[in-house]
Amino acid sequence: MLLVASTLAVGYILFIGRDRVGAGITIFNATSTKGFINLGWRVVTCLVVTFPLIIGWLVVIKKIWHSQRAATIILTLGALASFLLATLLSIQGFQNEYKYIFTAAICLTPFPSLALEPALERSKKLAFPFLMIFTLFLIAPLAGKMKNGWPWLPVQGLSAPLPIVDLSSFNLKLDPADPRAALVNAIREQTPGETILVALEADLYLPSLTQRAYFVTPAERKPFPGVNISIDQMLVKVRGYDKNLIESRRQTLQELYSSTIPGEREAALQSIRTLKRPIGLIVDEQKNVPLVQWLSNNQLGRAVYQGDGIIFWLIDA
């Protein structure tokens, strides 16, 4: 069973990472003195954060080894494998290997429960208050972190103030009072789901609000609200896109929106249309007048929204 699960996990990782440029996961480099020290700190960190769970394992392992051997082996190996992955792997993009500690904790959680069971049965009425106080003690570090460090915002600031959102339905929406809400709603409600968004500038990460993909995310000066890290870091380090592809597509946007060279704007649009999906252009009424006139003169699509100085122009596939 473990072999089957491991094989499926490896197959899944290979499948979702098949188009990555560069490795998404590498072995932690501990060849230098600094690397070896960092590796040691990783081991210490794993032991410290799961210390209460490990104590529970030590208390009951002898007692349950004969009666629940199979379950004990599976849970113990699962915890050890999680520790090994958290220690030896480096996941591109902000050290996400720490999340393997969660799976280690899941595997170890039954053991302290079994260790406390006899004492709790003897204490009877004191069992519930004890567990409540003990739980509050364990979550105190997280509560402090949430109070003093949330919401986490990047040092360089955001591309726009944090927007107020409407959570009254399944879809994440902007509050109706937000001047951008009408545009976002028009994109989500009046375009096909496979529509590609094309924008030269943006102060919000529109895919989260519209459920429509970007042709390429506009270049940003500061992180988008809700993303909180550079979008280029997200695309290149975390998702593994080719940096040259991103730059090439952004150049295509520049040619579409700003070119004065005959034929260049048409070639840029044709490059986007090779994806054979509807195209939604977000156009500034003042800055992009030549583009709107060119689209109108060539009968390329139609405006489905216009307001607050913005036109949303839809071109069918």
Radius of gyration: 27 Å
Overall 3D geometry?
A: elongated
Sheet with most strands: strand arrangement: 6-5-7-9-8
The quaternary structure here is: single chain
Provide the helix percentage: 40-55%
Strand count? 9
Helical run tally: 13
Secondary-structure element series? HEHHHEHHHEEHEHEHHHEHEE
Name the poorly predicted regions.
none
Q: Whole-Å distance between the termini? A: 47 Å
* Count of individual domains: 2
- Sketch the major β-sheet: 5 strands, mixed
What is the mean predicted local confidence, pLDDT? 87
What proportion strand? 5-15%
Describe the overall structure.
The protein has 2 domains: 2-149, no CATH class; 165-315, no CATH class. The radius of gyration is 27 Å and the shape is elongated. The longest helix is centred in the middle third of the chain and has 23 residues, at 127-149. The strands form 3 sheets. The protein has a 5-stranded mixed sheet, with helices on both faces. Strands 1-2 form a two-stranded antiparallel ribbon. Strands 3-4 form a two-stranded antiparallel ribbon. It is built from 13 helices and 9 strands. 54% of the residues lie in helices and 11% in strands. The relative contact order is 0.08. With 317 residues, the chain is an alpha/beta fold. Strand 8 (302-307) and strand 9 (310-315) form a beta hairpin.
